Amino acid sequence: MQQAVSLSADASRGPEPGGSASGAIRRGSSSGVLGDAIFAGACRAAGVFVLLLLGAIILQLFLGGLDAFRAFGLGFVTGTDWDPVQEVFGAGVSIYGTVVTAVLALVIAVPVAFGIAFYLTELAPEWLRRPVGTAIELLAAVPSIIYGMWGFFLIVPFMSMHLQPLIIDTIGTLPVIGELFAGPPFGTGILTAALILAIMVLPFIAATMRDVFLTVPPVFKESAYGLGCTQWEVVRNVVLPYTRVSVVGGIMLGLGRALGETMAVTFVIGNANRISTSLFGPGNTIASVVALEFGEATMGSLKLSALLGLGFILFVISFIVLSISRLLLRQRLKG
Amino acid sequence: MVSNRLLALTAGMAVAIGITAAASAQQASITGAGASFPAPLYQKWGEAARQAAGIQLNYQSVGSGAGQTQIRNRTVDFGASDAPMTDEQLQQNNLLQFPSTMGSIVPIVNIPGVADHQLKLTGELISDIYLGKITKWNDPKLVELNRGVELPNVAIAPVYRADGSGTTYVWVSYLSAVSPEFKQKVGIGTSVKWVSGTGARGNEGVAGTVRNVRGAIGYVEHAYAAQNKLTTTQLRNKDGNFVEPTTTSFQAAAENADWSAPNFAANLVDTHGATSWPIVTPTFILLPKNPQDATKAQNVMKFFDWAYKDGDAIATELEYIPLPPKVEDAIRAAWAGISADNKPLWPAR
Known about the structure:
The structure holds 2 protein chains of 2 kinds.
Chain A: H1 2-13, H2 15-27, H3 29-72, H4 75-78, E1 82-83, E2 88-89, H5 92-123, H6 126-141, H7 144-169, H8 190-214, H9 218-226, H10 231-260, H11 263-268, H12 286-294, H13 302-334
Antiparallel strand pairs in A: 1-2
Chain B: H1 2-19, H2 21-26, E1 28-34, H3 39-52, E2 55-61, H4 64-72, E3 78-81, H5 87-92, E4 95-110, E5 120-121, H6 123-130, H7 140-145, E6 157-161, H8 166-178, H9 180-185, E7 198-200, H10 202-212, E8 216-221, H11 222-227, E9 234-236, E10 242-243, H12 247-256, E11 280-288, H13 294-310, H14 312-317, H15 325-334, E12 339-340, E13 343-344
Parallel strand pairs in B: 1-2, 1-3, 5-9, 6-7, 6-8
Antiparallel strand pairs in B: 3-11, 4-8, 4-11, 9-10, 12-13
Helix pairs in contact in B: 6-8
């Protein structure tokens, strides 16, 4: 309320100092009209350019992958064979790997990101909020190759020497759930990739959540506290409902990055074209396959076509994810 | 001060260009692209040749496949490829192919208690390991071959190159040569469908994974293994002898290879010879037979002529294997096939 009042006060004070400026614009009105037209045209061109660019990329990927789509039909999406020698290509394993690692990454990252955001907005002492907030933003600026090397030289040995043997010896011996944690402790694999991805998407989600948590009017929270709500109840019933749309948006941003991440994943996922029941088993993702195989794919070969086709599929997956998130948001907004 | 010096320099350059043609030859630059395996050597050769032969080499290490594409489109002066092109491909694109140097591939292992050059392996056993048929280091077949070596009860973790690479091409060529089953199930290519194990990116990725994982086996270029002091093994060659990966055994393989193969596509995998290392490979240069720029093509040949004459020391230092002199002479003779305006560009003068 107070803010709104001060804003309108600013607006009412506005015209006086701005008067001479608007007079100047009025005096040069003919060039102003021309300038407006140019400006509007340039902005429209920029907007159309983005659309054209996106369309051209999709079209290019589709045309490039056409040979592979023709050769294998729907089998290109469902097939799990990737044999460059026999020229049999199926994207099934990499689609599976892409989706599983991205979803697992979110499962790990979202609760942590929520904790960070909540701590920073509600619990942390004032002097700590800025340094921690900056640290999270810096984490988002670390290039993915650094995460890849860090993962390969630090996380992978740690997983293979400490964490995985421990899990294999404990949870791995249980009847059904043990299947998820079977196999030799390579250190690389689906779980390690998801872990690295989680760390990579964490700052995006956490930063978004923190920013939107800050937009909740203090009055709302104060009234809830005044009614005797606990901190959890305030978050659950006031902060989250108020910021739901933006929180989902932030998570989708993270999911988008996790789906397309290439460098870091190729270092730690184990790069095998197999679907394993174990989370420790190696796998691959669409982006990692394209990155690894591209260098030796000759021009005009079926393999290159298959790789471009993979790119198209990744595009489609991202599009589906985006659509679902929009759909969810719309329903909730209506509700 | 600075501008004066600059002026003097430009004036000097103008005079030099005006007076002698040799000056322009001194700035001769050639471009090449392709295989990453010989890239460090080409880099060093390039540095040395700038002084010695006056040729500046710009080499892009983009991978063999991309190298072939680039020379096919004639966007570079020469292409480089680990895997030879077929005779048909070469004729189609009007290219001449010749080897520049050789390298070798070695198995690396991480087995507790096993030292460098200690473990004895055969190609058949390695095939079985990569096919997932032998899964423990204390498998009877391995124990029988390695009497006196304490082999632990540890699972074997095969590691392969996940990125398409010439190293993989040579490695699976060898395994396919010794094991019909491997040839049928996996086959030969720069990237193949692996049946078991895990993939890592690049030599450094394979070496890193092998170092991290107890019981791992992998393969890298010898140069990489030597520089990083990795644990390599002995291999049984075609004559039935166990040989260690050393310069001597590599050179023996080169001496015993049949270099009369068309387009110099000699097969150095699993060659005869009592002391031959079984996984040696040449790496190739691709030159247009009808170059658009005769001078540049000539400079490429001058560059490799210099490298054959004076580049052996650099090659050996970097753990590459120089070609036998008789092969180098045969290559120089083959250069006569490159011509512009119906005039052969070699011997250059």
